[in-house]
Amino acid sequence: MGPPNAGKSTLFNRLMCRESNRAYRLGSDKKKGRSIGRIGYRNPSKRSGGAIVSPVAGTTRDRRECIGSLGGITFRLIDTAGVDGEKIDVAFGKKNKTSMEGAMIRQTMEAARVSDLVLLLFDGRLGITSDLLETIRWLRKINHAPKPIDSDTDDNSNSFQSSNRHHHREIVILANKLEGDRWASMDKDNVLDNLAEISRAGLGDPIPVSAEHGDGMADIAVLIAKLTREKRARLGLPEESDSDDDGEMKKTDNEIKPLQLAILGRQNVGKSTLVNSLLGEERVIAGEIPGLTRDAISVPWYWKGKPVKIVDTAGIRRGAKRERSNEIEDLAVLDAMRAMKLADVAVLVLDAQARNIQRQELAIADSVVREGRSLVVAANKMDLIVDADYTAHDFACAVQDQIEQRFPMLRKTPVVAMSSLNGENVHKLMPVVFKARERWARVIPTGMLNRWLEEVVDEHSPPMQQGRPTKIKYILQTKGRPPTFLLFCNVTELPIPYLRYLTRSFQDSFDMFGMEVRLVVKKSAENPFSNKSTTNKATGVGGWQGRQKRFVAGLKRTGTPLLKGKRTQRKK
Ligand SMILES: Nc1nc2c(ncn2[C@@H]2O[C@H](COP(=O)(O)OP(=O)(O)OP(=O)(O)O)[C@@H](O)[C@H]2O)c(=O)[nH]1
Ligand SMILES: Nc1nc2c(ncn2[C@@H]2O[C@H](COP(=O)(O)OP(=O)(O)OP(=O)(O)O)[C@@H](O)[C@H]2O)c(=O)[nH]1
């Protein structure tokens, strides 16, 4: 926490535990920049997955959370928006400001409320400013506010119930940007003049640190270790052993994997409003200013007892519409695309007032399926459609038609028409999302697949190639998420229209809409399971039955037996 531009996000990124925050375990930004496809961004920047860092004051808006780690201790880490005099006036009701200012301070206040330790950062090179002093006064006031039921016991639910238990938060002041010997060599008059004020606040001397260079992290580590020990003693927990936190992490790994849900769309279509409506609280900042959301905010949540990680993302404008020099917007789009790549299901939010799906939205839909994610469309702001002849159903059909024209494989993509602002039909979204994930991850029994193949080939056989009949002998699912199949044929390729026919028929038969169905053609002289000579003489198990057994066992074990096998062979 601290004034704008103090280096809070830089410190957040430094303390972020990349191991535990899997969302950030991808390769280099440069590499991902290439695969983003049509949406693209101009500046991959130096950042690799944390909060957006920029010299522009007021970059961070939402409260961003992750698991932090320092000195072997893991903890919940929160980045907040910069606090200045104006926002504090808003907080105390002295000034009526835009909903954005008010929402920013509410989010920051909530972060302070749920924390055991507040690291109050300021730019040590500037000395102590009036903004910092005001922030200190404000923090002292909220320091004695009730703390919610211990966040340790409530980490995943995100529902901070209030308790009457008063809790003292430790506030520590960090003088940032003092790398190397800057602190020792700087003229501290300005700082010392104001130290008395800080002392009066009972906050002790500032600790010189450099978030960018990592100086002073040992001091923060000692502080966190001390607080952790104290908290354990308070809660009556045994002394921490070295492996304790690792154990906790492993336990979390083994729990049911949450559904990763990314909320995507153009600016101002109502993504944040939808997230808040689903969560039933003002968790992210929503408002009429376009481009309000910047960081992709991931919120753990339970829907009907099922874990979900919902990610609100920045609105995506077409590259051409973005200002050339707007690095923050580029970074925000990059973050949104990263969230999409990690999602199981992506909800594309549209503004129903536009009547037609926009080119940019089609580009987002295209990126979602190219990345192998499952797509659901939310037609928002239906309350603003006053035309009685134009119903939610009409809109849903129009959207489906337009998507189909551009991307035939995306026909019948599920569309939910709703109004996030008044909550109408919002409850219909999550069942559709869960169904979409279930289908996307589905593994279809080989027998069922081959019966389907026989039927479709009987109905419409593949065209001859080079005067010879084309034979599709067998089909196997090599992978789910997205569904991927291997077609064993007597040719290396099947004509695209025929592949389309197979895909359409497959989608109709297995109800797999809103995702790419990947059909890979493999030339094979024989049906892979008809070779009886593979019988193991020792066990007597073999032929196609043995192969199929091993295949199914492999599929259960890894989900991608064939691809894995290939990879291993290459490595050798
Ligand atoms: N020299 C130096 N610069 C730093 C250090 N920490 C952060 N910065 C720079 O300060 C600028 C602001 O950093 P941010 O982390 O975005 O600051 P913030 O407090 O999150 O800013 P807001 O989002 O505006 O509240 C960036 O240009 C950083 O590179 C540091 O330790 N030393
Ligand atoms: N009438 C109406 N207004 C809505 C609805 N959903 C959102 N809004 C309004 O649309 C505006 C934008 O909402 P946000 O939720 O901030 O939109 P966003 O897509 O997150 O915007 P960015 O942060 O710019 O990407 C706000 O003024 C909302 O009140 C809706 O269902 N009906």
From TrEMBL:
Domain of life, per lineage: Eukaryota
Entry keywords, A to Z: GTP-binding, Nucleotide-binding, Repeat, Ribosome biogenesis
InterPro entries: GTP-bd, GTPase_Der, KH_dom-like, KH_dom-like_a/b, P-loop_NTPase, Small_GTP-bd
Pfam families, alphabetized: KH_dom-like (PF14714), MMR_HSR1 (PF01926)
One function term, GO molecular function aspect: GTP binding
GTPase Der C-terminal KH-domain-like domain location: 444-522
Domain G: 50-143, 261-381
Listed HAMAP family: GTPase_Der
PANTHER family linked: GTPASE DER
Family: Belongs to the TRAFAC class TrmE-Era-EngA-EngB-Septin-like GTPase superfamily. EngA (Der) GTPase family.
Name used for this protein in its record: GTPase Der
